[in-house]
Write a structure and sequence with these properties.
By secondary structure, this protein is an alpha+beta fold. The protein has one domain. Helix content is about 20%, strand content about 20%. It is built from 3 helices and 5 strands, in the order H-E-H-H-E-E-E-E. It has helices at about 20-30, 50-55, 65-70, and strands at about 45-50, 80-85, 85-90, 100-105, 110. The chain has a 3-stranded antiparallel sheet with strand order 1-2-5. A two-stranded antiparallel sheet has the order 3-4.
Length: about 110
């Protein structure tokens, strides 16, 4: 079941979503759970990203089930869904301007 407030986004949201909560994003990565419903991920795994994130193959939003990603598509502005069989969780380096971790899919699916 899809939560009104997605798991990784915290406790208070209205309309369009803001940034996910850092601790919950890390929990999604390390426990391989969905950023929307908090349940265990299977395959395929979906990521929501901007055109820039898709082009860089590096996403800030946590992994999610395909159905869960579709429920957020209208709430996260300017995004598209990318499907993958797996991903790497990459923490920022000390010198990186953007201090948010990224998810980098390693097996894109058509």
């Amino acid at each position: 079941m899809i939560a009104t407030v997605p798991f990784a986004w915290g406790d208070s949201l209205e309309g369009e979503l803001g940034r996910p909560v850092g601790k919950r994003v890390t929990q999604c990565a390390l426990s391989r759970i969905c950023g929307v419903c908090g349940e265990t991920l299977g395959r395929p795994i979906a990521f929501l990203g901007t055109q820039r994130e898709v082009g860089r193959n590096a996403f800030h939003n946590p992994p999610m089930h395909v159905a869960c990603a579709h429920t957020l598509l209208g709430r996260v502005g300017g995004t598209e869904i990318v499907l993958t069989a797996g991903f790497e969780f990459v923490r920022p380096a000390r010198d990186d301007e953007d201090r948010r971790p990224t998810f980098q899919p390693n097996s894109l699916l058509a």
